Amino acid sequence: MFPEYADLIPQLTTRDRQFAALLDKHRELDRKLQAIDAGAIQATRDEIEVLKKKKLGYKDQIYSRLRECSATGSAG
Predict the structure, then answer these.
(1) Which of 8, 22, 23, 28 is 20 to 30 Å from the Cα of 69, by its Cα?
(2) pLDDT of residue 73
(3) What is the pLDDT of residue 76?
(4) Contact 16/74 with Cβ under 8 angstroms?
(5) Neighbours of 27 (CB within 10 A)
(6) Minimal CA–CA distance to 19: which of 11, 30, 7?
(7) pLDDT at 43
(8) Cα gap 21→26, rounded to integer Å
(9) Alpha-carbon span 8 to 2, nearest angstrom
């Protein structure tokens, strides 16, 4: 995710607890959606849609934070 920020992501993850939490939540939802796709977890279409929207919301927040830090030259 966001290869253009490959150098910044580890820096922010280490220095910014909120950013790290966003990444964790995004990854958790990604794992859950993969498990649903694999049939390991049952979910309705509505539940899947809610999970996808939450995941996208976290991704948007992550991207915003990356852009902000990239523009200001700060990593935390």
Answers:
(1) 28
(2) 78
(3) 55
(4) no
(5) 13
(6) 11
(7) 97
(8) 9
(9) 10
CA atoms within 13 A on the CB side of 2: 17
DSSP states of 1-24 = --GGGTTHHHHHHHH-HHHHHHHH
Task: Give the number of other Cβ atoms within 10 Å of residue 12's Cβ.
Answer: 22
In the block, tokens 């607890």 appear at 17
Instruction: Give the C-alpha distances (Å, rounded to integers) separating 20 from 7, 57, 75.
Output: 15, 15, 12
Mean pLDDT by runs of 10 across the 76 residues of the chain is 95 96 98 97 97 98 96 75
pTM, two decimals, is 0.90
Return d(Cα 44, Cα 42) in angstroms, integer.
Answer: 7
